[in-house]
Amino acid sequence: MRFEGRVALITAAASGIGRATAEIISAEGGTVVAVDTDEGRLKDMVSAIQSAGGRATPIKPMRSMPRRRTPWWSAR
Questions:
Q1: Using CA of residue 18, residue 41, residue 66, residue 71, what is the dihedral sign?
Q2: Which 3-state string (H, E, C) describes 11-76?
Q3: How confident is the model at residue 48, as a pLDDT?
Q4: Which residues contact 21 (CB under 8 A, 6 or more apart)?
Q5: How sure is the predictor about 76, in pLDDT bands with cuts at 50, 70 and 90?
Q6: Contacts of 25 (CB under 8 A, 6+ apart)
Q7: Residue range 7-21, pLDDT digits in tens
Q8: Phi, psi of 65 (to 5 degrees)
């Protein structure tokens, strides 16, 4: 197993490339620390990895700044 004894921190882990990466690393023996703002999908992904016998921990990031309603380049 390529990732045995290693921990991977994966951002945007709930879907797409992030999820695929988390699943591959877990299947190869690694422990996944999964970060995403979509709490529902994140929990589903972590449950799927754990059901398959892998190790994964979900983390929902804190936002230190409120989201902008307009893009930064047009806020002048």
A1: positive
A2: ECCCCHHHHHHHHHHHHCCCEEEEECCCHHHHHHHHHHHHHCCCEEEEECCCCCCCCCCCCHHHCC
A3: 96
A4: 8, 10, 13
A5: low
A6: 3, 8, 10, 32
A7: 999 999 999 999 999
A8: -130, 140
- pLDDT beyond 60 at 59: yes
The three-point CA angle 40-11-20 to 5° equals 75
What is the second-level CATH architecture of the domain 7-61?
3-Layer(aba) Sandwich (3.40)
Rounded CA gap, 18 and 65, in Å? 24
Spatial separation of the C-alpha atoms in residues 3 and 72, rounded to whole Å = 39
Q: Where are the domains of the chain?
A: 7-61
pTM across the whole model = 0.78
